[in-house]
Structure formats: C-alpha cells, structure tokens
Write a structure and sequence with these properties.
Blueprint lengths: L9 E10 L12 E10 L2 E7 L8 E4 L4 E4 L1 E3 L11 H8 L9 H10 L2 H17 L2 E7 L6 H12 L4 E7 L10 H9 L1 H6 L5 E6 L6 H13 L3 E6 L7 H7 L4 E4 L5 H8 L4 E4 L1 H6 L7 H7 L3 E3 L13 H11 L4 H15 L16 E4 L6 H4 L6 E6 L2 E2 L2
Parallel strand pairs: 1-4, 1-5, 6-7, 7-8, 8-9, 9-10, 10-11, 11-12, 12-13
Antiparallel strand pairs: 1-2, 2-3, 5-14, 14-15, 15-16
Helix pairs in contact: 3-4, 5-7, 9-11, 12-13
The chain binds zinc ion.
C-alpha cells in the first residue's frame, strides 16, 4: 500500500518497444529494449528491464505491445500571448512574405489582455502540448516589451514551467521605433532588473528587423551578468551573426539555424551549443527548411522544437515537427525522435529528462503504435495514448 496522497508505484509492462535514449540499456543510439517493463516510484524511474523479470508495484499498466518513449522536451515556445494571427497566416499563404514586424500585432493584444486571459490561454496551450506527449516546455516572454508586461509574462510562465526565458529583445518595442539604442538600454537595464528574478534564460531575436549582432551581444552579456544563460534566435530568415555569437557566449542553444555557412556548422559542431531546429516556422512561413543532415554529419547536437507562437508557427505538436524533420530535413526517424526528447533536454541542459533510465523523472509517452518510427510514418495521426509526467498520468 502507498501512503495517502502518493500515486504509489506503477509497473508499466507489456512494452513492445521501449526507447530509453540510453545506448547502454538497449540496441542502437536510442537504446531500444523489446518486451520491456518500467517501474515508476515517487515520480522517478525506479527500474527498467525485461518484462519477465520486472518487480511488482502498487498498480499495473499493460501497454499491450505498444511503444513507450520519453516525454517530448519542447525547448522553444512562446506561449504567453493574446489574440491570434489567422488573417496574417492566410495572407502569407496567398503570397505575402513573412517579416519579423508581425510580432507587434501580438504585442498590442497581449498588453491589452488581463492576467487571467493570458493565464487561461497559456494553460490551454500547455494542456494541448501535454496531450501530444510534451512533458517539458520552455516558455519565453517577448510580447509585452515594457518592464511590467515582460515581468508579468515571466511570472505567468513560471506557473507552468521551470524553463522560463526572458525575451525582452524579441523586437524593438513600438515606443522605441526611432530609438532602438534606447530600447536596448531598457532591456539591459530596468527590464532586466524586473525580469531576471523570474527567468533562467535570456534570449534575443538576432535578425534584420529585430536586433543586430552588437545589440544581441550587449543584451546576452548583460543577462549573463545577472546569472541568466543565453539562448539565441539565430540565422532564421537569412545568414547573420547569431550562431557565431551563440557559440562565442556559450549559449545553451542556437535556435532556427536555417541559413548557415560552413563556419557556422563547424562552430556548432565544436561547441556545447545545441542547434535547435524549428520546422513549424518554415512550414508556416512557406520557407526552406534547415538542413539537419548537414549539422548531424558535422557532429553538432540537434534538437527539434515547435517554436509555438501565434505568428510564425502556431503548433504545439512535437510529432508534427518529427514528421517534417524526417520528410524534409534529412533526419532518420531515430534521429528525429532523439532530437525531440534527449536533444531538447540537451538544449535545456537537463539530465533528468529526455531519457528512460533509473533515477530520472518519470516522463513517458505510450503511443498507439508498435514503433517510434510511426511518429513520422503516420503523420497527422493522434498516436499519443498515455502521457506520464513525473509519474502522474496527465493525458
Ligand atoms: Zn522563437
């Protein structure tokens, strides 16, 4: 019997294929075990091994031959906002080009929204992601662009995740359109003072129309001095200095990486900076996809993430991103599943998620499929059947 208030231990057995992401536990880079079982206790993985030698537990879940994978780690999302940009998407699909300035539309709606409205939208999106297998989400600010609105976004994000990112430097706030240097002073000064206590990470949209390399360096360096670790929106719409800056400053991740030259690829491959690819953005802006194959072959660590935001990638679906990565970006199904789980964990510098090994957080996803390959082989099909986060069934 388990103590009142505890979920007790769970034996998940009958697992036809278990993706552990630990090569020492099974075959191949995904460490796959067949006919496996997992025991969860106190929110952690307590045991992993062959089903016929599994210890007993308080309750039992029979996967009936299905595949179980680690929960998805979505390391790049913008979920604190109001309104949507349906009309902009439709116009783009009718031929208009995407530009960074569309962010200001969401800024106006977000500033006008109440805390309750923003929290409700955030909760809805977190639930939507969970139902699709996401158990860790990063969440950025960046639609407030005033001291109070950015701090509010980070407070709200903190209620749903530990992975909170200060993105005051998403675009220059409209009030500073004629004084971008003044806005950088705000972002590195009073806004940083208000936001640093609520965040783990600092991010910059380093792009023409947003912030150039010098501005991005100033913002990320100021964040580092306050104990925040950099991550960078880099090289999304054209080639730029973002990737080199991310590597130079020891960023956890350079995100987008769509337009890279040979030096960028080499820099990522020889650093701890993860290349986070966000194919939902290229899908939703009808742009060329990043070349994951080139990065992997060079030795870079690659993560996949949704970039969920109302303008350029309004999806919370990691399976959708996996399917695109396999079809369009040169990734094998194994690589794409690794990048959406262990890769995302690496991009957040987490070792307690992204794998199914004893001791880590019990974040698991049971798919209504015999193999993880089905995530790409059966695109658009809702395969996620059960999701455990910290040992508790959340979907
Ligand atoms: Zn983004």
């Amino acid at each position: 019997m388990s103590a009142p208030g505890s979920t007790g231990s769970i034996l998940i057995t009958g697992i036809g294929s278990l993706v552990t992401n630990e090569p020492a536990l099974g075959t191949g880079p995904l460490g796959i075990l067949h006919d496996a079982a997992v025991v969860v206790a106190d929110g952690r993985i307590a045991w992993v091994g062959p089903a016929d030698t599994a210890p007993d537990a308080d309750t039992r879940h029979d996967a009936q031959g299905r595949v179980v994978i680690p929960g998805f780690v979505d390391s790049h999302a913008h979920l604190v906002f109001a309104g949507d940009r349906t009309a902009e998407f439709a116009a783009r699909m009718a031929g208009q080009a995407y530009a960074a300035g569309g962010i200001r539309t969401t800024v106006a709606a977000t500033r006008a929204a109440s805390d309750a409205e923003l929290a409700a939208n955030l909760d809805r999106l977190v639930d939507e992601a969970a139902r699709q297998g996401t158990t860790v989400l990063e969440c950025k600010s960046g639609y407030g662009l005033t001291v109070d609105d950015e701090a509010r976004a980070l407070r709200l994000a903190s209620a749903v995740t530990d992975e909170v990112t200060y993105l005051g430097a998403h675009v220059v706030a409209p009030e500073y359109a004629d004084d971008p240097a003044g806005y950088v002073d705000l972002v590195t000064g009073p806004m940083l003072d208000a936001c640093a206590p609520h965040a783990r990470w600092v991010d910059v949209f380093c792009e023409r129309g947003a912030f150039d390399g010098d501005q991005a360096r100033a913002i990320l360096t100021a964040g580092k001095k306050r104990g925040l670790v950099p991550r960078v929106h880099a090289n999304q719409l054209r080639h730029g200095p973002g990737v080199q800056l991310a590597v130079e400053l020891g960023a956890a991740s350079a995100d987008h990486c769509t337009h890279l030259d040979a030096a960028d690829v080499a820099a990522l491959a020889s650093s701890d900076t993860v290349a986070t690819l966000l194919p939902g953005a290229e899908f939703s802006t009808r742009a060329a996809y990043p070349d994951a194959r080139r990065l992997i072959d060079a030795g870079a660590t690659v993560a996949l993430s949704t970039d969920c935001n109302p303008g350029s990638s309004f999806t919370t679906s990691m399976p959708f991103c996996i399917a695109i990565a396999v079809r369009e970006m040169g990734m094998t199904p194994d690589e794409a599943v690794w990048s959406a789980t262990a890769g995302g964990a690496a991009a957040l510098r987490r070792t307690d998620v992204g794998r199914i090994v004893p001791g880590v957080r019990a974040d698991l996803v049971e798919l209504d499929a015999p193999s993880h390959v089905h995530l790409a082989y059966r695109p658009g099909v809702p395969l996620v059947r059960t999701v455990w986060r910290g040992g508790a069934a959340v979907a």
